[in-house]
Amino acid sequence: MEKAKVYFTDFRTKGSEDLLKKLQRLIKTAGIGNIDFSGKFTAIKIHFGEPGNISYLRPNYAKAVADSIKDLGGVPFLTDCNTLYVGQRKNAIDHLEAAYLNGFSPFSTGCHVIIADGLKGTDEAYVPFPEGEYVKEAKVGRALMDADVLVSLTHFKLHELTGIGGAIKNIGMGGGSRAGKMEQHNAGKPLVNEELCIGCGQCAKGCAHGAITFFDSAGVEGKAGRGMVARINHVLCAGCGRCIGNCNQDAIYPSEDNSMETLSCKMAEYAAAIVKNRPQFHISLIVDVSPYCDCHSQNDAPVIADVGMFASFDAVALDQACCDAMLRQPPLPNTVMDNIKIINHDVSRSFHPTTDWRVQLLHAEKIGMGTREYDLIKV
């Protein structure tokens, strides 16, 4: 496979060109105009952010992309699928309210918001993917597959289960219906280190499946609180890993198997199924790089400096370019990285040692989604 072209520009501005115009110039130079948008419904796949979290991409960026698509004759809409866990994005009503609360309204972005898998997360398309090693039929939000063109607009960040959240995760995990997300997550179940657990109950608040209960030292079940420890019922657990991120004591951890790798591979296969044989374009911004996913209702301080904006027709090459840029950045002080030993300049693998971001890229390349080889073109 030939090297992909990845286009890059930093966040510096001068003269009459503001940052949004610079983003539009980037995607124009990267060739977005080579896609026939004329009268085409165009899904802009984005993460609206869980209310309380403020590290998600600002709606201004979405408007800049939507305006560019409209200038090319397209009919853009912003979209995401409902979540698997408890929160304000688990059904379309709450999800729309969350999007509007975070600024993604038709008035601010110039296009409508459609929750791709419908009211309860059950409006899904079954997408055959014979190339998959784990997934032969992806369950994808119907509106995402009904769109004529797919554009991903991604906030690049770290992630507790997949190492990084880039374009592959935005498309693959984000594009899965609730059943699709369940399928991707169900390879492994987390465990509890009872010596570290303080019984605070934060893990249970984020569990959508009632899988976490609390017991005292005598094994009697009760309410969360001092002297209690959490236990996870693996029959009820969906393996989504939400509790891992919610635990401030590092008392919940993934089981010692290959479930993280399996999750990353399944996610790559979902992404490949969604983009296969359709017009596509991908944009990623390395800005406010939080140590956890934007799915959390809070965010920590960015762990590396803002880098810039990237665009490509190849989502795999785009993620690789973003990861390479991440590896060139030193960790910022006064962040969660202060007491972490940095290994091989990799803030992701240093902070999330049980994950390896390379797995999703290697697998995506293996199944033909794209290539990790690229030429970086500065704009």
Automatic annotation (TrEMBL):
UniProt domain 4Fe-4S ferredoxin-type: residue ranges: 188-217, 228-257
One Pfam match: Fer4_7
Sections of the chain in a coiled coil: none
Name the UniProt record assigns to this protein: DUF362 domain-containing protein
Organism: Treponema parvum
